[in-house]
Structures are given as structure tokens and as C-alpha cells.
Design goal:
single chain, 192 residues, mainly alpha, Rhomboid-like fold, 70% helix, globular
């Protein structure tokens, strides 16, 4: 009988998920003090170096356990396939760009709102995944449907529903994922 072994199949996705888990647990233990200090972006002084660090690290922090579980379920579902297709470096770039862009725009346009969580990354992954069967000169119907359903829903929710969800982060994450999917697949075809 052949033995089975557990493999560390998607290092970027697994390490990202572990960091999110640790950040969430730390937040629970510290009464959100660690989340506010390290894993949440908000309008703080530009003279404070942590303001710039948090522009990236806010994607690791989560408000509570259900927030974490909702995001990580998608990350673990979509991430390994994306990491296999696009590679670790490209996936790190998508995560970092999503964090930076959502962090900067939240800082500029929503100075009274703190932002934390990987939902922007989730939306980037959702839209990026729709490009996995991309062919030059074509736009996948799955991409159009996902864009309409997910981004349309977030635009509607941002206008019509008041909640504590950053719809802007979702939309921006989706845009980052879309651009990364298009550019990544276009450059793959050019080198093939």
C-alpha cells in the first residue's frame, strides 16, 4: 500500500493564511490592540513609519473569527490553483499591490474608517481565477459574469447598504486581480 504524505503545496497561500491566523489570534488575545497597531490601516500621521507598514499589513488582520474564516476559505480554495498557474512571485505581487492600493485609497478617501482583512485579496483572487483559461484576443465569459456579479454586488452594497464592510477594498481587489490576470496571461502568450 502506498503511503500518503502531506505536502506544503502552495507556500505563498499557506504562509499568508498562517500569518492571518496568527494576526487574528493576537487580536483576540490583546483585545484588538495588536490589530490596531500592526494589522489595520487608518488615518494616522504620515510621519509615523507604521502608517506605511500598515498599508501592506492590514490584509493580515481580521475583526473577528468569522471575518477571518470567510476570507481564508476563499484564499485556501482559490490560492493554490492561482499559485500553480501564475507562480509565487506573481501571487505575492497581487497580494502586496492589493494591500497597498486599498490602503492608500482608504487613507485618502475614508479618513474616518479603519480597514483590515483579506477581502480585497479574496476579490483579487476571484477575478484573477477567471483568467485561468484566457486566450489571446478573447475575454472569458466567466470573467464577465464574475465581474458583473461580484463587483456589481459590491458597488450596489456600497451605495445602498450601510455596513462595516469596505466595498471599496473589494472593488479595488477585483480590479487588481483583473489587471494581473490579463497582463499575466498576455505576457505568458507572448513568451510561448
Amino acid at each position: 500500500m502506498k503511503k500518503f504524505k502531506i505536502t506544503f503545496n502552495a507556500p505563498v497561500v499557506l504562509i499568508f493564511s498562517i500569518i492571518c491566523l496568527i494576526a487574528t489570534i493576537l487580536g483576540m488575545i490583546t483585545g484588538d490592540a495588536s490589530t490596531r497597531a500592526l494589522f489595520m490601516t487608518y488615518h494616522s500621521s504620515l510621519a509615523n513609519p507604521m502608517t506605511y507598514v500598515r498599508m501592506f499589513t492590514h490584509v493580515f488582520g481580521h475583526a473577528n473569527w468569522s471575518h477571518f474564516m470567510g476570507n481564508i476559505a476563499y484564499i485556501l480554495l482559490l490560492g493554490p490553483l492561482l499559485e500553480e498557474k501564475y507562480g509565487a512571485k506573481d501571487l505575492i505581487e497581487v497580494i502586496a499591490l492589493t494591500g497597498l492600493i486599498t490602503g492608500i485609497l482608504n487613507y485618502i478617501f475614508f479618513p474616518n474608517i479603519a480597514l483590515c482583512g483579506a477581502s480585497g485579496v479574496v476579490f483579487a483572487f476571484i477575478l484573477l481565477s477567471s483568467f485561468t483559461s484566457f486566450k489571446q484576443g478573447e475575454i472569458p465569459l466567466t470573467f464577465i459574469l464574475i465581474a458583473v456579479i461580484y463587483i456589481g454586488q459590491e458597488i450596489y452594497r456600497g451605495i445602498a447598504i450601510e455596513d462595516n464592510v469596505s466595498n471599496l477594498a473589494h472593488v479595488l481587489g477585483g480590479i487588481v486581480g483583473s489587471i494581473a490576470g490579463y497582463v499575466g496571461n498576455k505576457s505568458d502568450k507572448a513568451t510561448a
